[in-house]
Design brief:
The chain has no helices and nine strands. By secondary structure, it is mainly β. Strands 1-8-3-6 form a four-stranded antiparallel β-sheet, with no helix packed on it.
């Protein structure tokens, strides 16, 4: 007897708030523009302080990434975890480990909106 193979589904993140508990802004009624990025952060690298003007979320594929908000609140995300990023709040990501961090992020905004703005 042949066994039916079914896909598995695991929810990695679902929330109306970012990782630090801040509520996400309302979505605009205009046509959304979606961008997917694969990002690799080298070992011991710290990204510049920045803010996102658009909604964004993703999943870590490998490594550990620590995200630090402007008020000093931080959270470390590990491979396989979902992340719902802050919108409009200064923060930075840091790879404190010895291996690269790889993540895929999805940004949703207007076609001409920047994905992030450096401090």
């Amino acid at each position: 007897m042949e066994r039916e193979l079914k896909p598995t589904v695991e929810r990695l993140a679902a929330s109306s708030s970012s990782w630090n508990g801040e509520p996400l802004p309302a979505c605009r009624a205009e046509r959304p523009f979606v961008t997917l990025l694969r990002i690799v952060v080298p070992p011991h690298a710290r990204l510049a302080r920045h803010r996102h003007p658009v909604l964004n979320a993703g999943v870590l594929l490998r490594g550990e990434l620590t995200v630090v908000a402007e008020d000093g609140t931080e959270r470390t995300f590990r491979a396989g975890e979902g992340i719902i990023e802050m919108v409009g709040t200064l923060h930075y990501g840091e790879n404190r480990g010895d291996e690269p961090v790889e993540l895929v992020m999805c940004y949703v905004g207007a076609e001409d909106a920047p994905l992030s703005v450096a401090e």
